[in-house]
Structures are given as C-alpha cells and as structure tokens.
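User: Round two. Same drill as before: sequence, then structure, for each protein.

Assistant: Same drill it is. First protein:
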Amino acid sequence: MERLIASPRRGVLGVVMGLAAGLAFGAGGTIVKPLFSEGWSPGAAVFGRLLVAAVVLAIPALVAVRFDVRPLLRGWRIVLSYAVLAVAGVQLAFYASIERIPVSIALLIEYLAPVALLLLAWARTRRMPHRIVLIGAALALGGLVLVIGPTGSGTLDPLGLALAAVAMIGVAFYYVVGDRVPEGVPPVTLAWAGFVIGALTLGLAGLIGVLPMEATFGEVDFFGMRSAWWVPLATVGVVSTAFAYVAGITSITLLGTRVASFLGLSEVVFAGVVGWIFLGEAIAPLGLVGAALILGGIVLVRLEPAAASPTPEPLPASDPEPVLVREDDAPAGTEHGASSSRT
C-alpha cells in the first residue's frame, strides 16, 4: 500500500481526530457509570455498547467498501485479532482487573502502552529514539502517575496485574493495527467489523455462562436526571465506542503509531475533566500538573525531527541516447532512423 506524503494539514487533522477520540473514550466511564450503579455487569455493558456501535456503523461501513466485504475476508487474521484484543479484550480485561487491584494501578498499567511500543520499536530496530522523544515519553509518564495518583493501598493480586497487562497489550495492538489497516479496508469498516465480531464473541460467552451478563431495564440517574436505561447505553455506544474508535484509527493512519499512542494519553486528562464537569469530582492540584506534563510530553513526541533523507548520488555522465523517429512522424528531408533532439 502506498503511503501518502505527510503534510501539515494531515498532521493537524490527525491531532484533532486523536484528541476527539481521547475525549470520547475519556467520557465513556462517566456515561456508563449509571448502568453499573443499577447493577449492570461489565460483560453486559461492554456487549451492549459494542452491539449499539455495530448497528450504528453498519450502513456507513458497508457503503465505504461498496458492499464488497472481500477486503475484510482477505485480512481476516488482522480483523479477528483486532476485534478480540483491541475491542472486546481491552475492556473486559480492564474491568476484570479492577475487581482485584486498585483502579489507579490498573489504569497506570493499561496506559503504559505508548511506552511499551516505544521500547519495542527500540528493541526491534536497535536504534535509540530521538532525545526529544525520550524526554517527551518521560514527561508523559510522570504526568500519568500524577493524574492517576496510584497509591500503595489495596492488594496487588497477581491475576489482577496480569489482566491489566492484557489490557495494555490490547491497547498497544489497537495502535499497531491502526497503522497497518488491511488494504482496501477503511477505518470505519475495520471498526465496524471489530464491533460485530466482538459482540458475537461476548454474546456467545454470555450464553454458555463463561461471562456474567447481568442487566436491569428500569430508569437510571443520568447527568442529574432520570432517564431510561437505554439512553446511557446508546450514548456510550455511539459516542465512546463507534465515533471514538473510528476517530482513533483515522488519527493513527495520519500520525503513525508512536505519536497517536502518546496522543491517546489525553483520554486520562479528558476523563478527569468530564468527571469534574458532570459528576463534580474535583481535580487535585497534582492532577493539573500531571495533565500539563502529559500534554507537554505529547507535544515533544510530535516534534520529533524527521529522519534526514540521504542525498542521492549523482548519475554518471553518459552520451545522450539516440531517439528513434518513426517514418510517418519524420519531417521532410529526414531519413528513417535518424536521431532527433528537442529543445
């Protein structure tokens, strides 16, 4: 697949889409919280949001490929692994981990994905990242610790830590696949396929009893008012799932894995801001400092200098080759096969 040449306009669009995805993802916890308060299990909530997203994106996804699903079938390995790891796996692993370890520790491990990708690229290429990228990564990591505010409270259950690590792997895979979308598969189609397969997988797990599925269908408290249960479910499915994944994949294709993954840390900042606005959850001063560090780290990673392209070697001088002129194109007085030069 031929890569498009980077341009400032594409970079700005990528940053905007990445921030939009971070805001949508970050708001997801606040939106879905009323369902958990009314007795919904994590499995039921994830299944519901994936089902809503799959229904909403069905027509746009099929129109994007002109109702030809052969590109999805050709890239079925990537699509399947994306659905299992980056869509369903991340959310289930995270929800399961916070039942065993503190939420702050689980979040910190999950959002180590950009650093893990950076170290993996360093190990694979054996080429140290640019100094400005390392400084930006350190700032973002320090800011992440301050925003999340992990404490030593709570039992660090090994299984809980392992589940949080699975969530981190799923997040990392989300960014890797976003930069290697199968040929002929638009971002909206890849996201839709992930939702469909993820919902089917979770639904089957619920039917056979592997995954607890508990839900209530009454009214819930939603942003200070009473509303039907399906209102927060539809909102989290459309905004924090369908739109968030499509915007995120689009950002990755425009910016690349590294920049987009660090830009994804804005989700933590947006989650705090949304919780403060709608739930009245105060942001500590250290959290504000951490948010500034995360944003500063993202800027530094984005400012990574482009690799200098090697100067092309001069071509050896050679005599001009004769240009053959066809007999019917030759001007009067010119013999067939004579050389002709243009000025």
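Second protein:
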Amino acid sequence: MTTTSRRTVLTALATATVAGPLSVLGATAAHATGANDLYDSNTDLYAKLAGKEGTDFSRRYKRHEQVDSDQKAAVAYGRTAVLALHGGGIEGGTSELCLGVAGYDPATLAAKGGPAYDYWMFEGIRSTNNGELHVTSKNCDDKVALSVAAANLNVVSLHGCTAAQAGAPSTRPEAVVVGGLNGTLKTYLHQALRATGFQTIDGSTEPDLAGIDPSNICNRTLLSRGAQLELTTELRKSMFTVNTIAGRATSTTPVYTGFIAAVRTAIARLETSGGDQTIL
C-alpha cells in the first residue's frame, strides 16, 4: 500500500486552501437528502432517461470472482465493497475516490497492489446540470448496486458535501463526515484519517449526513451496517490539480493518496478484527 506522511497531507491541504476559488465543475452542493431530487429512485431515473446512458450518465462496476471448490478447506472470500452513488460531475471526485479505495488506478483502472475490492458507481457525465441526476442513498435501487452491497460484509460509500452541510469551521473547511451504522468501522476510519492529518466529523452531529437509515445502501450489507464518508468540496478540490470530469483521474495529489491509504488501512484493520468478520 502506498503511504503518505501526515506532514505531506497537511502541507498539501494548506496549499490548496489558498490556491484560489473552487472550480465550478464538480463544486455543486450535495442534496444531503432526497427532498430536491428529480427522480424517486435509480429505476425512475433510468426509465425517464431511457437511451441516455453513455451520454447523460454511466454506471461502472467490478465484482471479483469468488470460488470455493475445495471440500477440505475454506477459501478466502471478499468482505468489502466500495460505492460512489453520485460520481462524475454530481459530487466531483467521488468516482476517483471509489476506484482508489477499491485498489485501482482511477486513470488506467489497473490494480495497484494489495487487496482489490468490489465497487459500483453511478456517474453524471453531462457537460452541465449533473446535479439533476442525484438520487439519495436510501432510494438507490439499482439492481447491481444492491447485489454488490448484499454480497459483502462491509461497504464504504463515498459522497460529497459542502463545508456548511458538514458543520466544518470556516477556518478549516476541508473535512470528512464519518457516518453509517457500523460503529467499529466508523471508529477505525476516524482514527486512520486523523492519524494522516484529516479533520473528521462524526455523522451523529449532522443528521442529514449520518448515514444511519437502514435503507441507505451503505447499510444493506450482509451485516446490515456499513460506513458512509461525506467529503467537503474544499477537501475534494485539494485532491486534484485539474478539477474536472476529464482531468481528475490523471491529476491526483498527495492529499488524494493519503486519503486512499487511510481508508484502506481502516478497512484492512476491520477485516482482520475477527468477530463478525468471520463467516462460519
């Protein structure tokens, strides 16, 4: 796993803070809830935008083959999936974060070494108005997405929000809200992210970002609990030198690398923690 020092991340964050105004593309405020959504569900969106996949939106996923044909010994199975429900131009940067946490280079899709996780993402790929494609997490009913979540013990779902939605101070708007129903994974994420220099905020203080609805896809796992990470616009901006749909995958910064390493550290710690991480 690639490692990034706390000092490197903090320096990069400080540089990004004074680097200038946010890119318009990808800086759209997250909806936080489904109140402003145009579509009731993914199924509703697919029906109303029939024929628009590949021009207005895209879906990408990877499921890793799991085979146990040994009658005498158990074979290791996948435990964790990574999701980005609002990728592309909806909540900019979350597609690249999803791929990175899953163990893949966001530009080439090549495996980067270490564990590789199942992933699924929905992306807005319009030139403008991608925010209209937002479907809130509890209303995600994409059949593949649900099957990916349900096939794994754990899920990490990546989202974007504003600093105001996260409750981050104006003096330090780069923050991550850690939510979901998996308390152990939340603790490990807080600890790993803070150790790398990131500011984390507990989802319990921000109800709209808490990720505790059992219908939220992050909690529709084999264990009925997972984790949700909401990254502020300023933090996501600091992860890329070219903050556009086309440019992000090839312009990641040490902040991106440090974030990926921290989340993967938390996942690895959870998967080796025993307890409910072992299927008998």
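The chain has one domain: 6-62+79-274.

User: Perfect.
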